[in-house]
Amino acid sequence: MDKLHSLFxxxxxxxxxxxxxxxxxxxxxxGDRFGxxxxxxxTAWVWNFGYREYRKQRAQT
Length: 61
Prior knowledge:
Elements: H1 2-29, H2 33-60
Helix pairs in contact: 1-2
């Protein structure tokens, strides 16, 4: 279960670092501020979640 959890966190971080900011930038470039802001908030939330999970994993080892 621990390896599965680590894989989930790595996958989530990869998505957060690539796809979500790219979508936010695309929305902003098209002039849709609302969509860009929503995806920017989502990016910050996912990065924060990933960092907290990383810190939990580091504290356990």
